[in-house]
């Protein structure tokens, strides 16, 4: 920026800058046009196709946005006089492009000069190039909004965390479903023991029974032996008369032993090993059933555990989403009802592609205004896509917000503020703004046609 900048030009957002007057000559299809846009609301430039409506907006964008907005064929083909652009802004700045090279001159009310950097300090690029914003992706629009309200990074971190927890929950849910399906498909044997059967323990039990039965057999054999001895002694009574007394003593002793042995043998009962042997033979089948039951129980337990984890992650996700909602609720949003959800703009509950044309313009204008609050105007092309009711609604909203919009529409109806016909404003046909190349006629004074302004409920 060259030269001194008057403090009147920019006071840190203390006022909103709009276009007070504009004069355009020999730019694209425009021959000579002078317009005084309404300060608040919609100034609608109407006319048929190829009459110069869009050329008016292109000229304003070039005047304020710099040579990157210069049309590829800026000069009107039929004219030898170069393009002439002259804008008066509400802060008193005069912006002019004229001469062979269309040099820029910016002068403040104090006579101090500036340049493109001065214009860039308060002219928002998207205000003169709104199609760039409206044609951006939903996420790009949302990112612009989040950056200007200062919560973009925080919201981005919340979304990353939410996605991470969501992915974990999704995986946990899949595992839980798989475990539940696996458990459901498993066969269950209600008659099987809870723990696998040990073959060694059953063999030890069998050996214990066999040992006990062997002891019983030993005692039976002992009984037989004593009985034989007793019988032998009885037979020898005849032969051993001489030893009768001694034999009687021995026999008495054997009688006592016999009584004891009989009593012991009377209570003895042998245990069968047939069931145990059958169980040993069936141990593999029993254990198969036990393992199947354990697998089913574990699968059901695993599924239940994963469901608990899933519910915990759901609670965590809801907490993150609540923080996102609180972050946006407490943010200084440019429009009531405007928010961001899942990286996309939401206005009154509708995503961009479901918004009405009027709402899309409201959202775009509000966001562009928020980018540079000092920039109080916006350029809009091709509003013929809107019906009259939508136009009126949008115009009333602009007035309510104290915003200025200069727009074009293929129409010659009463809704149009001015009509462009063959490069002129209707009623200004044949006038010129320059008497010779590169010079302004100081004596050119002529009254601007009155523009229609929006009134609530009428056109």
UniProtKB/TrEMBL annotation:
UniProt cross-references to SUPFAM superfamilies, sorted A to Z: P-loop containing nucleoside triphosphate hydrolases
Q: Which Gene3D superfamilies match?
A: P-loop containing nucleotide triphosphate hydrolases
The UniProt entry, under InterPro entries, shows: P-loop_NTPase, Rad50/SbcC_AAA
Q: Respond yes or no to whether keyword Transferase is given for this record.
A: no
Q: Which GO terms describe its biological process?
A: double-strand break repair
Keywords recorded for this protein, A-Z:
Coiled coil
Lineage of producing organism: Bacteria, Bacillati, Bacillota, Bacilli, Bacillales
Coiled coil is among the record's keywords: yes
State one molecular function term (GO): ATP hydrolysis activity
Protein name, entry field = Chromosome segregation protein SMC
Query: Where along the sequence do coiled-coil regions lie?
Result: 216-271, 296-330
**Where does the record place the Rad50/SbcC-type AAA domain?**
21-283
